[in-house]
Amino acid sequence: MLDKDGIAKRIAKEIKDGFYVNLGIGIPTLVANYIPAGINVVLQSENGLLGMGPFPFEGEEDADLINAGKQTITTLPGSSIFDSALSFGMIRSQKIDLTILGAMEVSENGDIANWKIPGKMVKGMGGAMDLVASAKNIIVAMQHVNKAGESKLLPKCTLPLTGVNCIKKIVTELAVLDVLPEGGFKLIERAPGVSVDYIRQATTGKLFADDNVPEMIFD
Amino acid sequence: MINKVVSGADEAISDIENGNTLMLGGFGLCGIPENCITALVKKGVKDLTCISNNAGVDDFGIGLMLQQRQVKKMISSYVGENAEFERQLLSGELEVELIPQGTLATRCMASGYGMPAIFTPAGVGTEVAEGKEVRNFNGKDYLMEYAFDADFAIVKAWKGDTAGNLIFRSTSRNFNPVMAMAGKITIAEVEELVEAGELDPDHIHTPGVFVHRIFQGAGYEKRIEQRTVRTKN
């Protein structure tokens, strides 16, 4: 079973040289720490920055330079800055190769719910609805089950949706799964030491697994 | 050159009235018009509809206007980090319309570009789509979203000149340029106001034609919401 960094590390393997990538808040942010050496990636922050760098050194924070999580950050050689409309223009026109974000639920037809729990204070969807509606490639990073022990991979989402029919891949502490175009979760890899049966029990949606599902390999 | 300079925030916002719709630039607390917010709190104007990506924090930004119950409705994409906001929302004192961030930006843009509506895939199949026209283009569904209609846009820039030309700095640019284009009256507060001719025309982000009033602000706090740093080895 993986910890959050393990999930981030596995997702980082999906990033290809030359990708422009948008990382959501939470586990997706950690992915930046595990981008393999020699791979050139440009991180987009939807508040208006391409080429997001690491956190500034202490004392070098700039209040005018933040990411979409409102954290102080830095630019990198080759960075560019733009307004919010232009930022979502590059998202809508699919110039961003990969979006990685968290979720509360994903359904077997690729619907995602990650912004609202009825009865709880709703903070808003931020840029998530724009990202999932337009991205050509979306990976969800999340825990396989919620705090109540219920599966987050479902036949149908129970929470209000963020987007429909848009998620292609999910990485959890237990597994890597593809969402099949015809519906259902296809088990691609198991976390080290986790059995197919265990994953099946944690998955309420339809799960397809071959006889020999490989374990994840980390370098 | 047409001179857009006013004496300060009080004069700039003097004709904002109860019930007006305002756009306020900024993302979180980054690039917000601090001086104008202070002046609006002082003026005590009420029943405002505020279009802004966020609603500030309890004691800064739009949060200051919420404390004085000046806001009737917030139109935002994300409104966390604000306990007073939550209290007013749950008690029914405050109305909130949450819309996707890209939709928010693009509805501002449409207004500034003179287009009545846009089509976006954001929110298709979700509760955001309720009551909205859906159109299919090339096999994909899009929602029709209307351009905003704001009485005033209030923005914060880094530098500006007496002709109203604006230059923004770093990610404090965010919503400011698109909102600047979208107000019936646009008010710009800047950290540094210079004479027309001192800014390179090639470097202007917002042409002065969109800006009706400009002044040099003072005492910028530029509060940081999430101070994140790394340590030197």
Structural class of chain B: alpha/beta
N-to-C SSE string of chain A, H for helix and E for strand: HEHEEEHEEEHEEEEEHE
| Assigned CATH class of chain B | Alpha Beta
Number of helices of chain A: 5
| Helical percentage of chain B | 10-25%
Q: Give the tally of β-strands of chain A.
A: 13
Q: Name the structural class of chain A.
A: alpha/beta
Biggest sheet record of chain A: 10 strands, mixed
Architecture of chain B, according to CATH? 3-Layer(aba) Sandwich
* CATH homologous superfamily caption of chain B: Glutaconate Coenzyme A-transferase
In helices, the fraction of residues of chain A equals 10-25%
- Order of SSEs of chain B: HEHEHEHEHEEEEEHEE
Using the coordinates shown, work out and report the CATH topology of chain A.
Answer: Glutaconate Coenzyme A-transferase
Radius of gyration of chain B, whole Å: 18 Å
Provide a brief overview of the structure.
The longest helix of chain A has 9 residues. Chain A has five helices and 13 strands. By secondary structure, chain A is of the alpha/beta class.
Structure description:
The complex is a heterodimer of chains A (219) and B (233). Chain A is α/β, with parallel strands linked by helices. Chain A has helices at 4-12, 27-31, 84-92, 128-134, 196-201, and strands at 20-23, 42-45, 49-52, 75-81, 98-101, 105-107, 112-113, 138-141, 153-154, 169-171, 175-179, 185-190, 207-208. Chain A has one domain: Glutaconate Coenzyme A-transferase (3-Layer(aba) Sandwich), CATH 3.40.1080.10. In chain A, 16% of the residues lie in helices and 23% in strands. The model of chain A has no long low-confidence stretch (mean pLDDT 96). Chain B is an alpha/beta fold. Chain B is built from six helices and eleven strands. In chain B, 51% of the residues are buried. The model of chain B has no long low-confidence stretch (mean pLDDT 97).
